[in-house]
Amino acid sequence: MVSRSSVAACAATLAFALAAPVHARPPAHSPVHADPIAAAIADPGRDADRRALDEGRKPAEIIAFAQVHPGDVVADWGAGGGYYSELFADVVGPKGMVYAVGTVENVDVAKWSPILARHPNIRPLFVSAGVQALAPASLDLIFAHLEYHDLYWSSVKFHYPVRDVDAVLRNWYAALRPGGRVVVIDHVGPAGGDPRQIADKFHRIDPERVKADFARAGFVLDGESSTLHREEDPHNTLVFDPAIRGHTDRFVLRFVKRG
């Protein structure tokens, strides 16, 4: 976690980035490649730490499943250290946009500064978790990687308030253009039970709970992928346990806003 002074400095930097015009130009480092997903993954500007995550996260398969295309406008919900934000930025290109949504109190300035410098089409939206919201009819894709269970999790220490999940999904539905998509990737949790207790104990969620939440909000389940399935995961272990960290069974769901 960053210090108060770092958060203040980051907030000022991000506020400036939001106010500054974004010029439609490709990053100078972008490799020429017929496949924009392959080009994004091969981008020589990506650092070694993020490249090391590729084997377990399988970004080529995931981005293809998410149906991201040049020119799309994407919200990376819970953008973390920017792993997917910079990949999306390369894929959508200079005519697209990526909004990196995160909790300002937890921002790692050192990780984000070089990403923002290299990708003029990323707009950081780092605010306190309780006020995170997306503008109406502004997006083609909302992408939530290992973040959906946190809508059911609360922590004073880590600045996660108790949230109204249905209200968040109503905002997501309104934020998408007709035909827009939401992709949710998360750690598979035990079936049934209280999702808040499961999120607190294991940092997981039952995929059937996610499907029910989205159906209630008006979304249609449009696809599932087994790309990140891990048979050996018992589903009842904390995801940060060294015995399983990085090797959890993860579901991948795609929902669509019809119309």
List the SSEs and their pairings.
Layout: H1 4-19, H2 36-42, H3 48-51, H4 54-57, H5 59-66, E1 73-77, H6 83-92, E2 97-103, H7 109-118, E3 122-127, E4 139-145, H8 165-175, E5 176-187, H9 195-202, H10 207-216, E6 220-225, E7 250-256
Parallel strand pairs: 1-2, 1-4, 2-3, 4-5
Antiparallel strand pairs: 5-7, 6-7
Helix pairs in contact: 2-6
Attribute tags:
Rossmann fold; 34% helix; 7 strands; disordered N terminus; globular; 7-stranded mixed β-sheet; single chain; 259 residues; alpha/beta
Account of the 3D structure:
There is one protein chain. The protein is α/β, with parallel strands linked by helices and 259 residues long. The protein is built from 10 helices and 7 strands. It has a 7-stranded mixed sheet with strand order 3-2-1-4-5-7-6. Helix 7 links the parallel strand 2 and strand 3 (122-127). It is globular, with a radius of gyration of 18 Å. The protein starts with a helix and ends with a strand.
